[in-house]
Structure formats: C-alpha cells, structure tokens
Amino acid sequence: MNAPLKSIDTSLNARAHRVAAVSSRHADQVDAEGRFPREAIEAMKAERLLAIQIPTAFGGEGASLSEIADVCSVLGQACASSAMIFAMHQIKVSSLVSHGADASWHQAFMRRIAAEQLLLASATTEAGIGGNLRNSICAIESDGEICRLEKDASVISYGKEADAILVTSRAHKDAAPSDQVMTVFLRNQYSLEQTHVWDTMGMRGTCSDGFLFKAEAPAAQILPHPFAEIAAQSMLAASHLLWSAVWYGIAVDAFARAQAFVRAAARKSPGAPPPSALHLAEVSNQLQMVRSNVVAGLNSYEDALVHPDRLSSMGFAVAMNNVKIASSEMILTIINRTMLICGILGYKNGTPYSLGRHLRDAHSAQLMISNDRILANTSNMLLIHKQDTNLLG
Question: Which of 319, 335, 243 is CA-nearest to residue 287?
C-alpha cells in the first residue's frame, strides 16, 4: 500500500524557510567570492516570492509590508546578501504597487513580474550628488512617445543580474535637481558600462557595482507620479522597515550561535552556569528591543495606509527615520557582544559559532543611506515638528 503523499506547506513563512535553507548552504561561498547568490534567487523564484507584494488583481498575492518584512528576517538569518537583494527588490515593487497601479503599462508590467518572477533593481544614486537620492544630475529626454536617459550610477546593486531597473532622474533638462521622476527600463532597453567594482568588507553578494547606464524606451514606462511622492509615501517606509528586518535577521542568527555556544559550555559543567550566560541574557534583551522597534514601525506604516495623509507627514518621516537609526546601531552592539560570548570560536571562520560574516554585513547598516544624513534630515524636521511622545500613539 502506497504511503499518503505529504502536503507541501505553501505559507509565506514555510516558503521563506525553504529558500533560507538553500541560501544558508552557499552563504559563506557567496561572501568569500563576492558573487551573486544565484542559488538563493532561483529558490525565491521557485517559491514565487518575488511577486508576493503584487496585488491579486495583477497575479500576485497582495502581501502586506509586515508579511514581507517577516520573510526578510527569515532570509537574513541565512544569508544577509540574499536577504538584502530580496528587500531591495520588494522596495522597488512597492513603488509600482503604490504609484503605478493606475497606469496601463505598469499594470501589465506587474502581471509580468508575477508570471515570470522578474527581479527588479534600482538606480537612485548618482556620481556627483553624494548619496542624496532626492537629487539628480541626469535628466530624462522625451521625444514624442520615446524617452532616453544616460546616468552615471555610482551603485546599481545586482545590476548585471536584474530583469529591469527603476531609475531616477530629473523630469526634464530644465528641471530642478529635486524635480524627479522614476522610470522602469527592461533589460533589453538599456546598456551597462561598468565603472566601479564592488569589493567590500560586507554585503559582498549584493554585487553593487557602478555603471554608466544608457537606455531608450517608450515614455509610458515613466511612473505617472513625481518621485518626491514615491519617495515619501512608499520608498521611505519600505526601505527603512525592510532593511531593518534584514538586520534583525542577521542579529537573530548571531544570537542563536551565541546561545548554542553557552549551552555547549553549560553541558560541560552541569549545575554551574557559565559566566557567558549572563551576557547572553543581556543580548536577548537587546534583540527584543530591535524586534519591538521594527514591529512598532510596521504597525505605524499599516496604520498610515488607512490614513494616507500620514504617509507624507513629518511625524511619519521622523518615525521611520528613527526605526532605521535605532535598528542599524543596535545590531552592531548585539553582534559585538555575541562575538565576546563565543570568543575565539566566534572570531575564527569555519566554526559553528563563526560571526565574522555577520559582523561585516552588519557594518553596512549605518552606511545604507548614511545615518548622519538621516539624522540631519530629522533634525531639520524637528525644528518644525513636535514629536509624538504618547505611549500608544
């Protein structure tokens, strides 16, 4: 008699864990070689994770940002580069969902993302603007139904591997630097001439090389809303919250390794808890603080969706900035402490307690949109805005 077939768990969490199992096997090699985590991305496509945010009307699953953040945290526990690529892709999808759903070309494109599991990249940084994504030097040129763009993009994460790139530019040649649009360009519509090599301390698998980007496409591919609106209402929250979820995942895995180390030490001396157990309790407290910070930010975002005016408010921007600052700084404290708990076995590569990759990847958190730049923006807003200090909002 044949045994009954086991049903496959199709929940987002189960699918994320299956992808994490794949990415974990290759994480050290991806880091050591600074190569694109192809196995992990193929697993994401196989589990159909790349289109989960797309509305069901366009073939996706209509997943909330909180659900996507949970996937980011699961992936972050396995391979930070793979998780960050997933997060950056979903940030681009959020721009389409929030600001392209009323345009026929972008509706059709979302259907393609869902059907073909397309991977989206972003070109918002530019040589000469110092990392300020709210300013552009390049300008899109429209000639009837055709648009053209040339951009010296100092960073395009996984640019060579993407199926499409969403690019910011000035709205036209006479536009101010902050008068920007975002345009979708498909792989067969642009060329990439590499100008910088991504050889970094951490997040090596994101392959964030620099390129001279040249493209030509139908003008219908320009998103119909100004980039200022896109940045404030979708990119700000999606970036800070999904990145924070990835960083939380890195910290979770570091904590798990430290906990395994302490438990192994405790088994060697029954009845006498090792001194490192106290430090593990401190790290547990800090990890919970990061989780609470991210969850509170996600709840604020979900609430703002019900009251759309809040998405463009100073109070919302300050809150999202604070989530990013707090999570990016705290995870370094957590991983440093787990390194002290694990000692030389955490410092060495190739042990069950190795934490070098975690520490190097975590150092990127304060640099992905510099914390100093974010604090400067927040300080300017606080000259006008009175911060909400109510415990329950």
Answer: 335
